[in-house]
Each structure stands twice: as C-alpha cells, then as structure tokens.
Design goal:
heterodimer; A: 309 residues; alpha+beta; Alpha-Beta Plaits; four-stranded antiparallel sheet; 9 helices; B: 221 residues; alpha/beta; Rossmann fold; 2 domains; six-stranded mixed sheet; three-stranded antiparallel sheet; 7 helices; 34% helix; globular
Chain lengths: 309, 221
C-alpha cells in the first residue's frame, strides 16, 4: 500500500481549524477523556509554575552578572592600612597620586558612615568604627579610557607603602562567572521544561488517540477528513495546555510577588523576581505551552491517522 | 470495477477477476457462503481496501489515485450500513445519525433530522445512547445515518443478520423506498427469504460470490 498523504494536516490549515469557532460541534465527536484531560491540565500548570521560577532566575542572574560586570569594569578600591600616625599622611599622598593618574575620573574617600554601612552586615548596627583598626577606603572610578593598574600599583607602593590597589577582579570575577552560568542554567531549565511539557502532552495525546482508535475509525468510515479528526484532538489538547499553563503562571507570579523584597532581604542579591516590564515575560509561557500542545498533538495525530485508512 | 482481484496475503486472492457496474437506481443483492468475501467486496466499494489487481472506479475516479481527502469525499457519497453498526457510544442516537453532517461541517437541520428519526421509527430514542438500543433499532439507526447525506449509493452488510422477520421486512421496506427515490442499493446477505421478498417489489439483480468470482444468480431464487 502506498504511503498515505496527509497534506490537509499542514500547520496553516490546522491552525485555521483551531482558531475557527466550532458551531457544528465537531469537537463533541471525540469522547471526553477525564483522566488524560486532568493530567494534561495539571502537567501544564506544574510546568508553567516551574517555568516562571526558571525565567525569574534567568532574569535575576542576568541582572546580577550585568551589574557586577559593569561595576567590575568601572570601579576599583584603594585600601590604606598604615600605623595611625601615618594614616592621614598616606591618605593624602594616595589622593594626590590618584588625582594625577591619567584614566581616573574620580577618587572619593569613603566617610566613616559609609564604612560603617559596609561593616554592618558583619558587626551589626552602631559599629564603633573609630575604635577599630579599620583601613581607609578610597573608591576610584575610571574614565572611558581606563588607567594602567600595574603602573598605579607600583607608584602607590613607592609613595604610600600602606596602600593596596584592589581592582576587585579576584573576588568578583568568579561571582560574575557564576551568575552568568546560573543565567545559562535558567535558560536551559526553560528549554528542558518546554521539552518535558511537549513530551507529557504528546504522551497524553497519544493515549487519548489510542483510546479513541475505534472513534477515529468510525469517523473515517463516515467520510471525516483527517483535518476534522485531528482538529478535534488538537483543539482540545491545545486548550488544556493553555488553561493549565495560565493557572500555573498566575500561581508562579503570585509566589514570586510574595517573595521578600530586595531591601528586606538585605540587598545581597538583586532579588529573585521581575522588575518593571519584566513582569510581562511570564505572559509568554501560556502562549508557548499552547504552541507546544498544538505541535505535540498534531504530531501524535499524524502518527495515529497514518495507521487508519 | 473491472477485472478486480483482492487478497489479504500476496499469492492467494480472496476475490478474483470481478467486473461489475452499479448504475444509479439499481438494486443488487450480493450472496455467498460465510467467508466468501462479501464484506471484503463492500469494503472495496467504499475504498476501505484497495484492489491488488484490476481497476476500481467510483463516481468516475480511480480509487487508487484518490488522496485521503478524496477517499473521505467518496465516503460521503456512499452510505454504509455496517454489520456491526459502528456507532460512537458517547453520543446520543440523534447525534450519531447526524454525524456525517457534523464531520463535514454542515449545519444539522433539526426538523429534517426529526423526520429521518420518524422514518426509521426512532423518534422516541433520539436521546438514547446506542448501547441502549435493541439490534433492530441499531440497524435502523445505522440506515438513517447512511442516508442522511443523501448518498448516491447505499451499501448494507448483512443488515438483517440479527433481526427477526418483521423487523427485517421493515428495514427492507426502508431500503426499497430509498431505491425508488433513485439511490443505487447493494445488500450483502445470505438470507434468501429476504431476497425473495425484495424481488416481489423491485427489479433486483442477485450476485453471488463463488469460487472467488462474481456470478450472476437469480434463476434459482
């Protein structure tokens, strides 16, 4: 027997069948399938819920990596740890060196109050900064051209032995790298969730199609076109995937919204959440889920219909 | 069909070298012992099977060249009363009868559907599910579904196989009425009494499958 052609099941025709109203009640020809229906809705909801978190993680780590990269590229710190009687003198020397170094836009000596803030996470509020041997900190901002860090380091060594140039590379680079990897993992998780959703919907659709083999046979015998039969299944599974994912997305967004805010959490991370227009990104999840349901069910229907003349 | 042969296995045909033309308004019976290939013959007529040799033409088109949509279109012009009736048990009888209209995207005329149910004397069972019907009622519902698209050809596979004589006569009358309205009718049966009763009312040709071939019977009936 020659291979059956299923040209009427092309994506465009199927999409038209899916989006058109169904006044003739064609969908009813497929019997209700309680268990697979619930399974599909639940799976889509669970996957959408997880997708919201994966998306939030990807966006948050993206922001974190970007922020750290920018700060890493633009700011360095000079730390001055010298005997108390030399501290003011070395600080003044360092400030002078920095002012005359090409490529430095600004050098700012951090006041005690800011140093206190920096120490607060470790020592708690009301740190007696003046009673502690805390080094002086100078925040240096580069201009566009940047400066020669190695030359500056050597010059500081010569003129102010207690000064150490810290360009943050040592401790920030691994963090930026980790944040970037986390973003990739978040995006990869989204892909995995999409693939798992597709697999689950395909399984559910195949189970429904197999359970309705006799229905499909009867429909073909009375003159139903493949597109009519496939649309009944595709419409049903696409709607279930969309409905479930809307529910999962709403729950996921509510959970993200209910997370402690950045300030409350202490400001260590940028916060696992959405900012501004970022709240619109999760709205793509139900659209993707519906698309996955559509493609997965079409594929399953194509396979099934090939077996029925 | 011209010199048509068909076999489920390669070298041993079940049906061989068969030629037949069904004209509009004709009435044929197809007889033969069980296993002779009557159901297979009907399945070839609505392109559920393809001939292994010879040519099968339906409404001017070679069935071998038909696409899947083409086969669906062919089946909408052929009403089939299956031996095992083939209903969708989750739908009420009325919707099962209207199924060919529903799947072809046509609006169901509820008044016409009511008339059809009355014609097959199932008005009181419109909302019943197929498993709730008796054998005779299922056969009449199958006949109603077979004719709802006003097909050009009606094929019936042992339509009275599970019915008592009165019910068989009632179903035969329905088929004769359809034939008188210009439909071609082909009934596969081994019920000779049914054939005799029909021949008293219509000009019916009787075909027999014997020795894998199609023969014209009739003188002995």
């Amino acid at each position: 027997m020659k291979k059956p052609d299923l040209k009427s099941l092309d994506l465009a025709t199927l999409w038209r069948g899916l989006t058109r109203p169904d006044p003739a009640g064609t969908d009813r020809v497929v019997p209700p399938t309680g268990f697979t229906a619930q399974l599909t809705v639940f799976s889509a909801a669970a996957m959408a819920f997880l997708a919201v978190f994966a998306l939030a993680l990807a966006l948050a780590t993206g922001r974190l990596a970007e922020r750290w990269s920018t700060e890493l590229a633009q700011t360095v710190t000079v730390r001055i740890a010298a005997p108390e009687n030399q501290l003011d003198e070395q600080t003044a020397t360092v400030m002078e060196v920095l002012k005359t170094t090409p490529g430095i836009a600004e050098a700012r000596l951090l006041p005690d109050s800011e140093v206190e803030q920096l120490l607060e996470p470790w020592f708690g509020p009301d740190v007696p900064v003046e009673a502690l041997p805390v080094p002086r900190l100078i925040e240096v901002t580069e201009d566009r051209d940047g400066f020669d860090a190695e030359a500056l380091r050597l010059r500081l060594q010569g003129e102010a032995p207690g000064a150490v140039l810290d360009d943050h590379t040592r401790w920030r680079q691994p963090l930026v790298s980790a944040a970037t990897r986390l973003r990739v993992l978040g995006l990869f998780s989204l892909l995995l969730i999409a693939a798992a959703s597709g697999a689950m919907i395909t399984l559910a659709a195949k189970a429904a199609l197999a359970a309705n083999g006799q229905v499909i046979r009867v429909l073909r015998l009375i003159g139903a076109r493949d597109i009519t039969i496939a649309t009944a299944f595709v419409r049903r599974f696409t709607r279930r995937a969309a409905m479930g994912s809307v529910a999962g997305m709403v729950l996921g967004m509510a959970a993200i919204w209910a997370l402690p805010s950045v300030d409350q959490a202490g400001g260590f991370l940028t916060g696992l959440g959405f900012h501004g227009w970022g709240w619109l990104w999760p709205l793509l999840i139900p659209l993707c889920a519906a698309g996955i349901g559509f493609v997965a069910t079409r594929w399953a229907a194509l396979k099934m219909l090939r077996e029925v003349r | 069909m011209q010199n048509l042969s068909f076999g489920y296995s390669g070298n041993d045909p079940l049906l061989a070298d068969m030629s037949l033309t069904l004209q509009p308004g004709s009435f044929h019976f197809l007889t033969g012992p069980s296993g002779a290939g009557k159901t297979t013959f009907l399945r070839l007529c609505y392109a559920d099977l393809l001939p292994t040799a010879g040519r099968m033409t339906a409404f001017g088109q070679d069935v071998r060249g038909l696409s899947r949509d083409g086969i669906a279109a062919l089946r909408r012009r052929v009403g089939v009363v299956h031996q095992d009736t083939q209903f969708l048990d989750h739908l009420p009888v009325a919707e099962n009868i209207a199924l060919p209209l529903i799947v072809s995207g046509q609006q169901v005329d509820m008044a016409a559907l009511g008339d059809l149910l009355a014609w097959v004397q199932l008005s009181g069972h419109a909302r019943a599910r197929p498993p709730e019907l008796s054998g005779g009622e299922r056969q009449r519902a199958a006949l109603a579904r077979a004719v709802i698209m006003s097909p050009d050809l009606i094929l019936a596979d042992e339509p009275t196989g599970n019915l008592d004589w009165d019910m068989s006569m009632r179903l035969l009358q329905l088929l004769i009425e359809l034939n008188r309205s210009g439909k071609a009718v082909l009934i596969a049966t081994h019920d000779l009494n049914l054939i005799r009763a029909a021949k008293q009312q219509v000009q019916a040709r009787v075909l027999r499958i014997a020795g894998k071939r199609l023969q014209l019977a009739g003188a002995d009936l």
